[in-house]
Amino acid sequence: MPPRVLVIGSGLAGLTTAYLLHREGCEVFLVERSDQLGFHSSSIVIPRDNAKVPWGQEDWVVDVPMRSFQGGYYPLLIALYRHLGLSFTSADFTFSFSRLHAPSPLRSASHSNRPTISTYFIHSGSSGLSLPSFPHKAYSSFIALLRHSVRWTIFAVCYICLLVLSFISWHTLLPLPRTLSALLDSISDLPILYRIIGEFIHEIFVPIFSAVGTMTCSDVLNTPLDTILAYVHNTFGTSHYALAQHSARDVARLLVEPLRIQGGEDHIRLGAEISAIRMTTKASRDDRPSPTGDQAFKVSLKEGDEIIVDRIVIATQASAAISLIDMIKGMDSHEDQRRVDLFKSALYRVSYRETIVVTHRDYSVLPRDADTRDINLVLPDSSLLHPTTESSYGPTPALSSTWTSRSPSNYASGPSTPMEPAFHQMSMPYFRPKNDEVYTMATHIIYPPSGFESNGPILQTTNPIVPIASGSVLGIARLERALPLENPDTILESLSVAPGSSDEASHKIHFVGSYAHSGIPLLEGCVGSALRVVKEILESEGLRTRTNKTPLGHVDWTQGLGGRVGRLWRWRARKLY
């Protein structure tokens, strides 16, 4: 009889795990506390507004958060999407880098008194293979143009040095400082070099990775350097991608559909909350013997149902995983207690940052039209920083009373939607810039698909540092995003189950999620951790040998590795999963 596996959580990690286990012959149950699948639960749906929409496309789904991905760093995700038959398009995003300045006290009352956004650098996309362009202020005078040209040259040299460092780190050719902060400290005795490299790191490098990892600037500076350099090395010269005619809703539907076919709604429990987990030796409703071995998990739901399974995969955030482990009763052996302590110790070391994502049409968060790009990164000027002791959340009178919405002439404001009144006059959440917690405000311009042009572009701002005009808001999502692990090898080893482990219950508990994978916690980590756990389960159940070369889930996982040149650049003597 095939093993019965319960997957708790329906983010991409949980859905991928359930999908692959099903394809490998396991009987899979999926439990999600929310009433909809987690991977697209925050998405915004814009209803069809005219007859030009292609047949079968009744609405425009805006993924929240942004679900774009980049070649080189997402080979497993790309392979999974291609296996599912999803199409995606290349999107060589352009970037603007700007500073948010406080309103000048010298401006007259007749002028707008809102903070201003000043752009200091523009990146033209293609992950380092294109030439940057200058912001509009570079053309204000010959001196300004000369100054920006010198700065561009210095940043170009710094970027080449960064690529060299990433190559050294990728192949472990030389020992490097542990973090960016340590790197800067190592050259602090060289004032000119320290100033040049420090400016590049703080003005370019830190904003990008603050946006990529949705973390504070200090988090970036204290992230393991090899983690950041691995991202630089793997993404060099690659394109960004976005799902073409599909969305996260389609991904979730395709991954969960086999489970519906397998056992109907009995195997997919949405809006279900677990009330207890106990060790047992018999199945529940018909008193059948446990499918394999003497031990099984009896999972009780608050709705009154019970599910008997052989293994549990926890696909939640680390904090929720700890609560679920504490809920399991009957793991009394010395080995079980040792493993539980190991699990909890590892999970407690996973840190999170709250993330705010606002989907809206308030163009005030963008730089002036000439400097606006696909993705616009804004850092607060030092004059806007607040003491560390103050709350991290807005609104603050200094900004909320002066920040007004605008709609540039080259953007259609679009019709109002039924969602807007719900946010009217609300206090919009944002992160007040603090001395030790500075976020990069990242605003992505999302253009409408064919048939929805009259809606105009939509903006998606992640970690706003100013309040968004309430009348322009389409949706607000507050999420928690894991930070990169400080000691990934140790933590991941603690969360893994080695093949041939004992039959104790604690060896039948598995963990997946973006945090349960090396590197920056992104969608790739969700798929990578799912592959690791599926392999653990199959080998532990005797359904697969360690020497088996058949792709897990019968998916060609090599089709996301890119062309020959890219594979050669990213080659390293390590397994794909």
UniProtKB/TrEMBL annotation:
Pfam families in UniProt: NAD_binding_8 (PF13450)
Keyword RNA-binding in record: no
Positions in coiled-coil regions: none
Transmembrane segments: 152-173
Top-rank taxon, per record: Eukaryota
Keyword list, A-Z: Membrane, Signal, Transmembrane, Transmembrane helix
Residue ranges, annotated region (Disordered): 386-418
UniProt keyword Transmembrane helix, yes or no: yes
Record InterPro entries: FAD/NAD-bd_sf (IPR036188), Zeta_carotene_desat/Oxidored (IPR050464)
Record field: compositional bias (Polar residues): 386-416
Signal peptide: 1-18
Molecular function terms, GO-annotated: oxidoreductase activity
UniProt name for this protein: Amine oxidase domain-containing protein
